[in-house]
Design goal:
Blueprint lengths: L1 H5 L1 H7 L39 E5 L6 E2 L3 E2 L4 E10 L5 E10 L4 E9 L11 H4 L13 H14 L3 E6 L11 H17 L1 H4 L5 E7 L1 H16 L5 E7 L6 H7 L7 H12 L1 H10 L5 H5 L6 H8 L17 H9 L11 E6 L7 H13 L4 E6 L4 H7 L1 H12 L8 E6 L6 H18 L11
Parallel strand pairs: 6-7, 6-8, 8-9, 9-10, 10-11, 11-12
Antiparallel strand pairs: 1-4, 2-3, 4-5, 5-7
Family: Belongs to the AB hydrolase superfamily. Lipase family.
Organism: Aspergillus avenaceus
GO molecular function: triacylglycerol lipase activity
Amino acid sequence: MAKLSILLAPLFAILPFVASAPAQSAKSSGPVLPLDDPFYKPPEGFESLPPGSILRHRLPPKPIAALGFAKANVEAAHQFLYRTTDTHGNAIATVSTILIPHNADYSKVLSYQVAEDSAAPNCAPSYAFQLEAAYDGAIGMVMPQLELLLIGAALDKGWVVTVPDHLGPKAAFLASKVSGQAVLDNLRAAIHSSNITNITNPTFTMWGYSGGSMASGFAAELQPTYAPELNIAGAALGGTVPSIPPVLQKVNKGLYVGLIPAGVQGLANEYPEIQQLINENIKPEMMDDFKKTQTMCLAGDIVHYLGRDIYNYTSNPDIFTTPTAKRIMDENAMGHNIPKIPLFVYKSVGDDVSPVNDTDAVVQTYCKGGANVEYRRDQLSNHAVLAGTGAPDAMIWLNNRMHNRPIEPGCHTSTSLTSLLDPHAIWALGTEVISVLKSLLSAPLGPGVVG
């Protein structure tokens, strides 16, 4: 069983090589796309309500489904449109999906931030998690759908899981302040939902990998000032991406070059200055191809731009080092504020998306500021592989926070060949695989249930 679990990690790695079908709209039998769904549009006057206010509620139009086809056997699922705030202080609305397992412990709530990593609003997890969700070809929604398998492991512990569309209504990928505030307001909305979800005096934790770690990390940094009333027991941040410029150099011409146009367009969705930078510096003959990221999800971006040189698209080789670009990328870098909540950070030494030294540096900044951080560096992995192999340690750490077990104060850094050499991690992996199989077989998710 333990060997079977290790197959989960390579699954993340092989996705970019899957042949992509032509871009398409939602299946006629599938859920309505977010851009076409009135549920996602806030009611008139919502701006006057406080952040975290619930604006609308519904049951998901289609069942929650792992990988878009395997119905998740949960006690209940809810969608909430709630009020949050954009980068510039303006009121916006986004959606959270709250999943309740069988035999739920309503006092334990995990906010899981998926690596949506897309500049297309139709790639939101609230849509992607539904049965027959289809956008951007055959594999367009596969990344958020794949992360639903990890969410299943949390549900199987009895935790209520809330998943915000943390990129907001404009899919502001890399605009991390938007994501952080959306995460915190998603927790506020979870509290307000108690008459519907039965969430009671919750212990909150947060978890995210890669793009999800950016949202979770910014939420941790912003919490003391943006949402000081929230009691968050800790956050697990995997595959962290603390700074944008090193990623541009790391991924160009390689496997993940599609992150660059998606990220630039995501910032342009939030910052008019970046849109102007695109308009003035992308070659006219390359503009249509560059703009394709506006209608593609993460997997589609990876496949479409695979191996390309992003500088072939621009007439200005210094486009990413202009004062405007540098200022905005710096605004969206981690490390401006010191989190007050405990952190578990895990990172591949050989990370092929974001250099490990950037995470080393931001952890050092946190530690100098008095944060409590457990930092684990993994040698036998890369960015995609650690998404699977690092999950057991994250679950163990989050479980300890959920049960209010004391942390070891201060900062603790360790480097190991692989976390899978730890017997506790192997045991946790085995339980995760059981949860994954239960998800795929539509068996009941929750502690003490069989089916």
